[in-house]
Design brief:
The protein has about 120 residues and is mostly helical. About 85% of the residues lie in helices and about 10% in strands. It has 2 helices and 2 strands; from the N terminus they run αββα. Strands 1-2 form a two-stranded antiparallel ribbon. Strand 1 (about 60-65) and strand 2 (about 65-70) form a beta hairpin. About 0% of the residues are buried.
Length: about 120
């Protein structure tokens, strides 16, 4: 009777190990994306700060592909604010995804602990 229990535990541990490795990779990816979005947000904020110091009559150009288009200061300002807002939203989504992944691994570990406790009690 001990052999089937060992096989069941072995299977559960191997599944947990695979899940942990997969989750670690996803968490690292999320961290990298958060870091990149934070840099993008900071860059947009600093650029916006500099743009707002300029006088309203300053000619400003937006880079589009291989050309530049003359844009009013307000349009550039709104684009930079939108860029910051989008980056912040994506950061929040990635943080939620990351916490969900960590919770799911913890739940799997807890389930295996419970299984081990049940086996020892028998």
């Amino acid at each position: 009777m001990a052999a089937p229990v060992d096989l069941e535990l072995k299977k559960a541990f191997s599944e947990l190990q695979a899940k942990v490795i997969d989750t670690q990779q996803k968490v690292k990816l999320a961290d990298l994306q958060i870091e990149q979005l934070t840099k993008t947000k900071k860059h947009a904020h600093l650029t916006d700060t500099e743009v707002m110091m300029l006088v309203d009559e300053t000619r400003m150009y937006e880079g589009v592909g291989r050309m530049f288009i003359l844009q009013p200061k307000g349009v550039i300002h709104n684009q930079l604010l939108e860029k910051q807002r989008v980056a912040e939203e994506k950061i929040k989504e990635l943080e939620q995804k990351k916490s969900y992944l960590e919770r799911s691994v913890k739940e799997a570990e807890d389930n295996i602990r419970e299984m081990l406790m049940a086996r020892r009690a028998q």
